[in-house]
Amino acid sequence: MNSRERMLRTLEFNHPDRVPRDLWALPWADMNHPEEVAALRRDFPGDMVGAPAILSKIPKTEGDPHLKGTYQDEWGCVFINIQDGVIGEVKEPIIKDWESDVEKIHFPREWFTFDRQAVNDFCRSSDLFVRASCCPRPFEQLQFLRGTENLYMDIATRDPGFMAFLNRIHEFYLELLEEWARTEVDGLFIMDDWGAQSSLLISPKAWRDIFKPLYRDYAQLAHEHGKKLFMHSDGYILAIYPDLIEVGIDALNSQVFCMGPEALEQFRGKITFWGEMDRQHLLPNGTPEEVHAAVKRFMDHLYSDGGVIAQLEFGLLSRPENARAAFEAWDQFKA
């Protein structure tokens, strides 16, 4: 069974030969533990990969997003970073007034100039499961452009300027996803961090009224083209798990140990749990034995003839031995 077949069987709860792997190593890990990261990639090769995105027109950016200092992204947002190896924060939003500032925004249409033939050639040459290299993130991008506090007020009041701009950014992302969906990739990818430590960042009702329809459109587009849809969201998002299943998300990367595998067990067999291990406490502070126990707990509650991808984020302060222990435990799992 090759990696593409393994992933599809996992996503369809159809008895893969083993749990597929997906290591996320942040730049911090490569900077601080290069040999250990290389060894993990060698000993536990992933089953999923991003497609090449070779652009004929490069969007304007300034700086490096993972180094100390400032970085300006493709939209014009300026991030301030105080530590190498991670991503900074936007302190000064571009949109201070919906009437006067919207036209300052650069929609990065350069992203549409990716080489379709190079993507298709890559997919045909690989037996890995290939994800598109674009990532719609409407809520997060709006925070970068507008500022988090201002955006929360816009959501609460349903500001007309906000609602109109949300529709514009959604149409942009739909068009971009459509272009990638026409290629031979196996899956599409979206993300938005919706959770705080113990609750959703906005009311579930507001989320369902404003943002749920966007994700439904993304899932419908993906499935119409025969693609799987992957999503990432940090934080405690238990309240919207049923909604994400309903709209058609195939695999969800979420902080399982923030919510608890026991709480998520009600969704086993309905969505694929795309990891992850506890990166707040366990990976930086735990022992390999505790990691092994956590993987067992994860699988006992969430595995369903598939439906689990062995994913973790090797990020800030994570211990290499704990990352290795997790993949060892996943490889040893027997259904």
Helix content: 40-55%
- Regarding CATH, which class? Alpha Beta
- Rg from C-alpha positions? 20 Å
Structural class: alpha/beta
Number of strands: 11
Shape: globular
Please mark out the parts with pLDDT under 50 across 5 or more consecutive residues, or reply none: none
Beta-strand residue fraction: 5-15%
Run of helices and strands? HEHHEEEEHEHHHEHHEHEHHEHHEH
Q: What is the distance, rounded to the nearest whole angstrom, between the alpha carbons of the first and last residues?
A: 17 Å
Mean pLDDT, all residues: 97
**Helical stretch tally:** 15
Topology:
Layout: H1 3-11, E1 21-25, H2 27-32, H3 34-43, E2 48-50, E3 69-72, E4 78-81, E5 89-90, H4 116-125, E6 129-131, H5 138-146, H6 148-157, H7 160-181, E7 187-191, H8 204-210, H9 212-224, E8 228-233, H10 241-247, E9 251-254, H11 256-259, H12 261-264, E10 272-274, H13 282-285, H14 288-302, E11 308-314, H15 320-332
Parallel strand pairs: 1-11, 2-6, 7-8, 8-9, 9-10, 10-11
Antiparallel strand pairs: 3-4, 4-5
In summary, what is this structure?
With 335 residues, this protein is an alpha/beta fold. Helix content is 43%, strand content 14%. α5 packs across α6, α7 packs parallel to α9 (212-224) and α9 (212-224) packs parallel to α10 (241-247).
Overview features:
11 strands; six-stranded parallel β-sheet; 15 helices; 335 residues; alpha/beta; three-stranded antiparallel β-sheet; globular; TIM Barrel
Protein described:
It is a single chain. By secondary structure, the chain is of the alpha/beta class. The chain has a single domain (3-332), classed as TIM Barrel (Alpha-Beta Barrel), CATH 3.20.20.210. 43% of the residues lie in helices and 14% in strands. The chain contains 15 helices and eleven strands. A six-stranded parallel beta sheet has the order 1-11-10-9-8-7, sandwiched between helices. β8, α10 (241-247) and β9 (251-254) form a beta-alpha-beta unit. It is globular, with a radius of gyration of 20 Å. The protein starts with a helix and ends with a helix. The relative contact order is 0.14. The mean pLDDT is 97.
